[in-house]
Design brief:
This protein has 251 residues and is of the alpha/beta class. It is built from seven helices and ten strands. The protein has a single domain, classed as Rossmann fold (3-Layer(aba) Sandwich), CATH 3.40.50. It has a five-stranded mixed barrel with strand order 5-9-8-6-10, surrounded by four helices. The protein is globular.
Length: 251
Amino acid sequence: MDTTPRIGILSAMHDEIDALLKQLTNVIETTKGQRTYYTGTLFNKEVVLVFSRWGKVASTMTSTQLINDYNLTELIFTGVAGGLQSDLNIGDIIVGHDLFQHDLDASPLFPKFHIPLLNKAAINTAFSEDLLKATETFLAEFKQHIDSSTIATFKLEQPKARIGTILSGDQFISSSAKINELLREIPQAQCVEMEGAAVAQVCYEYNIPFSIIRTISDKANDNATLDFPKFAKEVASLYAAGILKAYFEMK
């Protein structure tokens, strides 16, 4: 086990951490279970970066390996998500407060969404005001970090940050009918993705502080046809680099 205290940074897609990898120095690569773990120094902090691949199983496997192999002080998940609330726009950011597995249903043995034996449905994050402040600081100057043509392509205007509830499930949500169903059951939900709640559960059970930042890439509806690799690499990964740089400077 690597005994150096490190901050873990996890994404579901390689493109989502592309900008972070370019900033990483003193890099050592370790491959296990078809994942590559990158240790090194990022903005004067010792970190380990890895992309998990899509879905709850993949992200659970990766985060468990990460926790067991590295001396994590905290774990941060970053990536894209589909917006659920009508006032969210592409480029907005949700800093997670709590996470549900929207496809978990062990009823009638347990209430819907409840995680068996944990006696809870939602897993709270180790949310910090510093992370929100770092996000807001980045968004105030995001045009200094994102190419103007990219801003035009994705119609990024005045992106905002919000603390909120994130839903995770092994489904790509692309219909208004499904959005309405999710909001009937968990009306406070801000966005939906495929990994966060699973990683949050792993961190909860291992007692590792967990945070999550999700960049809204689409409205998760019938028009969810955005070029995800392009958005992840040219927007979300640069968001992550800017936010984490500001966040690490506060620590």
